[in-house]
């Protein structure tokens, strides 16, 4: 006979209050005592010690070096809480994230041990709870010493860091990266709950979504959608239970029920809805979401647990078919090929528990504002919080999710293997409900890098992770997230099983990473290669001025001053900045101009790359820039710096990722060597008169031509430039300008430093508007890349555009959002209103 149901459903209680932090062992600096310091949960050691004013901010100056002792210490978090029996059968401690190697004790009894930052942990503590006060302690072992010890235990495996991050299941960039700070912290980094429940609970629910066929934009107007909810149960008694599921939204309501006999641990319900609205990526359509809810009840109707999710109906597949160019790599959503305009995502803070939903919303909003439709969550970081994926669902930002492996060989032996399997099952089950999730990727550079970096020889026959990427991870995806696409690594040449003798980074096959550019070659060489899909490439630049000067107090501040060196993590990074600048403009001799020059060069490099890649649609079907964001204030490849401010690169990406792009490109097959390319990544046909002009720098029109164009939706058209337009008499002082509707493009025949650019002559006025000011600029002479560096006026000031070219007599207006206390008069300052002309004329003309 079934037991009587409990009187109350599952109860979840936060245990976030009353925590203290103590140093247990390790190299705590002499004279510092860390005992019972007030602590925050979720949190970590670094942020707790900062809040107690025991340590300085590691993001500032060279405080990183001063605080390396923290990662070599053991730490203990402690709290007490009141508890009284409430009639439930079970009581579980649920840790959503422990960083990383920990022992959990309740009332001095060991509850469990953990060794994985990327997992959730549930411990049955019913027999350990006491009426009245209970003491909960979590002791963390030093992550640095644990990684070192595990490296010895598992055997040396090569990696790219000064810590063996590949021997511990912790965020790899916790130990530093070529853009990241070394802050190997510890802590209860995600929420903690005490769950009390009876009879049964929903242990896991996975909605598998299907749509009949691939309707596409021109297909069925009202497709049928199905969702099969696979539910795993955990029982506390032998009662029969029932699962009720309901799907609602956009005029739909579908219900289903399944009975589960005592002792059965799983069930599945399929709900079918007609006339569903399809979910589309940003700029391809809307993002309708449906509410899905499951209730666990007993025969008397009492509820014991509830689960809910928002789902979307869409199909996503990855086309990797061989063709005349090699092996394609094309995302196909609802039957329609999607040109991927994306960026790589790293953890938005070196202390990820500080990343709030609002911060995710700001960053994902910036991706959307930059005309992106995909973020790749990089494998050296995290499986992000649910808020990240929720917001991507809402905004139509596809997610490419790496498993947490990057730039290293990984042992396939226990205990690491068991941790990796548990981690993968945990996160695939958690994230598979999201319609934005388009791809699971096994690793970052771990197959290509084995050969490229000489890792195979150093392994001397030891395992390195291939079995994870070829068998374990794809099997888990197939089991828990059927239908979702999987690739073994990035870059990946499209072949399975992996052929280690084949170039995994060949431009003609699959996805490609391009790091010869920046590391060894100059950015015009982006045009030398036409990859099928560019999954990683980038160019460095400093953070915005206000971020830079907040983080670094050097006096004088120079490119090589001590704080600047600390905040430049790339190997020979400053040398590469210089080498990449000099072919284009002279190296400035003051810090203000250096900062502008390197910011300009970063933006220009990526704009050149993106316009080139898009001009080769559909042979190339995507570009994922390294990287959108930063985790602290640093010179890096990011478009948005560590304080969340938009760098000039952001605006270059927004231009190059626009739905409609007009660009002038060198073309070897063109009779004149130049072509105008009209890229129409829009649902509407683009037609009009393409006006082509060759002009002198003084504005004189030397030649003109007009070509009628009609470019269908999601198509590209290439028009050879006429000889009269493409052939300059004086390359140093002539340009080609193209116009189609409200889009434009320019082509310069020489590098800026070899051109006849002169000091910018501008007429500027500033007028107030409701939320800031307008900066009106008229060019007296040719002005290139006119930019308002608004953050130099006020850290919160944001401009709408950057990098604008003006011919003599042309005007433009910048909209600057800024607080009322900011001085708008500063917007005309030489170091705020910048042009490329400022950099080119330095050798011959005085600064303005």
From TrEMBL:
EC number(s) per entry: 3.2.1.25
Swiss-Prot/TrEMBL catalytic activity: Hydrolysis of terminal, non-reducing beta-D-mannose residues in beta-D-mannosides
Record-level Gene Ontology MF annotations: beta-mannosidase activity
Keywords in alphabetical order: Glycosidase, Hydrolase
The keyword Hydrolase belongs to this UniProt entry's keyword annotation: yes
GO biological process: carbohydrate metabolic process; glycoprotein catabolic process
Residue intervals of the Beta-mannosidase-like galactose-binding domain: 36-190
Domain Glycoside hydrolase family 2 immunoglobulin-like beta-sandwich: 224-314
Keyword hit for Ion transport: no
PANTHER family: BETA-MANNOSIDASE
Entry similarity comment: Belongs to the glycosyl hydrolase 2 family.
Protein's UniProt name: beta-mannosidase
